[in-house]
Amino acid sequence: MAAPAQGEDSDDGMDEFMEKFKAQKYKNAFNESNWEEEFNKVPMFMKTAPENIDPEKNPDLACIQSIIHDDDRTPEEQARGLKDEGNDYFKEKNYKKSVVSYTEGLKKNCMDLELNAILYTNRAAAHFYLGNMRSALNDATAAKKLKPDHVKAIIRGAQCSLELRNYVGVLQWCDEGLKLFPTDKKLLELRATADKLKREADKDSRKAKVKAKKEQNEKKALLAAIKERGIKLLKTELSRHRGSDSEDDDGHGGASRALADLELDGMGSQEATGARVFMDEQGVLHWPVLFLYPEHNQTDFISAFCENSSFMDHLAVMFGEELPPWDTERKYQPQNLQLFFEDPEKGHLYQVDLETSLLNVLQHQRCFLKAGSPSFIVLVSGSLFSKQFLSGKKVKRSK
Length: 399
What we know:
Csn1/TTC4_wheel, two-stranded parallel sheet, actin binding, Ubiquitin-like (UB roll), coiled coil, alpha/beta, elongated, TPR repeat, repeat
């Protein structure tokens, strides 16, 4: 019997294998229930790569990774492989990892300018979706420098500028891009949006300037009115740092040295009360006034006390038919009350005539306003607490 030829021997072997394959079920075959899961374990077809690749558990995947990062390949090949890796991460919306891949690709310093421009543009896109607009804009600028006609870089630069509300920058990016690509739909849309927003921003800016100028003029008029009345303001901490420690015209130190030259920052009592002095159309001043009741640790606040009104005008309303709930002994009747303001320099108390006007008191030579808000101490005349509170204090009557 003649020996079979090699080809025939091979065919016979294949026939034998195929017969065995038909009779014996393949143990590692995919089935309908898990084929997608198993398919995703194959490195070449993975949709998502594992966070940490163990060469022993994933030798095939580690091999592919080593090919991507193989230092034996040219810088261009390595950069291209890292670009593809970054693109895969980008598709998975893993923008942080895509930034790392694109950065590593740029570190290869390959001589392919177009490839580097793509790496910068892609990294700009990843930064954009991470919300890193400044970094994205820098990358778009770098890409455009390498490849001036790279439309994706130009569009990305315009988008970043728009997010940063740099509308002039958007227009510059778009105008440069439209010189190269006059009909590019995205650039035309971005330019139209930026132009509209810039017009609105310019309009708002003009309104804000007019408003600020008006407020500044009103403050200056207010300060002039206060100065004309001879009302003295204590410096705030800010104005104290700005000012000097020279003595005032009256030669006194302490509070006198702390007097503000009616500076704008000394006008507010908003921090304490939410209100501030204002001048009405008739040129009359209205002050935020604080009343202190030390016996009960209570306060009252009048947001707009007209300078021409007397203290009794307000006390008659505050302690009229409905007395405050903390006055359980019903002592705080208008006719029983005493009012004082304190000299912040000497600590003396000055008793106020309840029938006098607020302006008359504010013009007193020892009355100094702190934070633009007058404050007064209210006591019940002849009460035990009043006697104890005033004991040891020098009390004078205001004139």
